[in-house]
Amino acid sequence: MSIKGAGQKLYVGKESSNIITFWGNKKRINYDELSRIDYMYSSGIETGYLEFVKYGNNIIRFEFGIRANEKIAKTIALINEYNQELQINEYRPSDFKFYQHSLFAILVTFILGFPLGSIGLFLVWHYKKGTRMWRVFITVFAILFWSSWIIIPYIEYRLAMNDLNNAMNSYFEILDGLKWR
Questions:
Q1: Given strand 2-4, what is the order of strands in its sheet?
Q2: Which of 9, 39, 73, 78 could cross-link to 20 by cystine, CB 3.0-4.6 Å?
Q3: 118-150 per-position pLDDT tens digit
Q4: d(C-alpha 155, C-alpha 168), whole Å
Q5: Domain residue spans in the chain?
Q6: CATH code of domain 1-95
């Protein structure tokens, strides 16, 4: 069975799975090398994930959207059927604290601005909200947004100072013209 995720594709088997990344890299996951599997269905706002946790806490993460929820349920049932000793944990978005939700992290990032908004970016990266590409996009967009709060007032300040200098120069030219009369 294959499942299309967010920039990845998961191929599920009875004894192992393979994840093909966006760049074409293949990650093989043997179930006998895993200590547990953690998963959460996508709720639309929250991205769903399937984490294969190896011994030593090395985590391989597969992320998916709401359309893949049904296939993920079949995947979990298949893995559980053939690997009953493997611990499988389901998480729900309602289990999260308020600060662990994606929407809260994004609101904090953009409403509080810099430097307090960096708390939102920390939450996005720490709790792995969305795909890695999405997190990079949010980070770049936040930096551009924050820099506009610095650059735009600076540009306005420079324009005002230029206007003031022009006004002062014309004033001094008028005064110079009055002295010669």
A1: 2-4, 8-12, 16-21, 26-30
A2: 9
A3: 888 898 888 877 677 778 888 999 998 888 888
A4: 20
A5: 1-95, 97-181
A6: 2.30.29.30
